[in-house]
Amino acid sequence: MEDENSIFPMEEALEMILFFNKEGIISYANAAARTKLGYGEPGGSEDGLRGRSIGEVFPHPFRDGRERTDYSLGGEQQKLVAYRRNKTCFPVEARIAPGRGGGELFVCMANDILEQEHLGREIGQIREEARQAAKAKSEFVANVTHELRTPVNGILGNVRELLGDVRDDRTKKALLLMERCCGDMNKIIDNILDFSKLDAGKFVLESRRFNIRNMVDYVREQHRGRIAEKGLDFFVTVSPQVPEYVIGDELRMVQILNNLLSNALKFTAVGKITLQLLRTARSGDKVELFFIVSDTGIGIGEEDRDKLFQSFSQVDASISRKYGGTGLGLSICKQLVELMGGRIEVESEKNRGSTFSFSVWAGADGEDASQPLSDDIAGDANDDIRTAFRQMARQAREEGDGPEDVRRYGTPENREALRRNLSKLILCVEMENWEKAEMFMEAARQLAEGAPPEVKRAALRLKMAIQKESYEKAAAEHEKLSEALGREEERDGEHRHGL
What we know:
The protein contains 16 helices and twelve strands. The protein is an alpha+beta fold.
């Protein structure tokens, strides 16, 4: 054994090392083997294992009294059960190989894997608990949203019945507010249900043949009135290359567009919103549809763009306080787009608007599939054309209305936009349409962000009067704000003329 010990630094090795002969008699066991098998302490005598049969340590593969010519078990590492001196056992990963002298001597190297197996069982248990927790969460969300929807729809139905009978303007206004709140609640419930299904991997797209231009017209009609009420322009274009009919999930495409257009309307006080649809590629019987939604709203800084598509996330806390929302809409849009084989992206700058674009793959209708493919683009070139379209949308957004000049307080464009919004605001006050008046007030507040303190204070007082729905105070504060703006404009004129 001295010769073997001089070749291998075995005594201090962490793994168990045993030498035995062709009869299975152990001639050497290192300190780790003696300790783990209960035959001595590190540095102690090895006599406890020397002379014993390897079958006492590994009784299953090596039974006592059984003649063997090869103990190597094929030379591969395998899992065995090692028995201690007190007949307790533990799992090991062991490899047995012929030592020096050919088949006269064998060496066994084994690692105790008891802790590893315990850890594996714990991991398996944790994984199962996580699976059960996810299942319980999904069931809870489904049950709670169902329970919420029932009373909300009950309230909504009764409110709509009462609206037909009520003649008092104050009561009718309260009922209309309740109707709107119920609609908003149903949208939140739908978002939570969609998120839950997507999170559980149980969301299924429903493909059918539909007229895509009719779909775009439907989306335009849904948003045109509210966009016009806010004094914004709304442009919709569909490329002639887009097929008349496609096969896909129309409902989910509408859902994505509604979300993006609602966000554009929410965050845009002046300027315009545009929706474009193009066909950018075809592969076999599939076409890639490319949608672009652009606005001239508040925009997003580059450092905040990564937050947009995260669940329950807003760019900052003030966004949810000022504009509302659960932070789920864009996350759901992203997952829906990916389910339809596409991707969604955003380009934006603070105070210069945003451009959201997304692509989806849809089946080409039989008649459209026979059209020539000369304009189809694939691979990197397809990425280039999408980028080009986004750049064109951004340029179109920045040209014409000049959103940057409109937002910079004191420019002619800014003053004109302020005058327009305040004129619409006072009309709403005269008609006691406080909801629209507050909308125009928010646009005026954004336009006056860079104004002197006198103008800002006047704008704040007007906003408070509108929120209190006080006609006299709102009219008086509107007049004061108009006078403050007039004085500011006169001072600017005098300064420009050197007076």
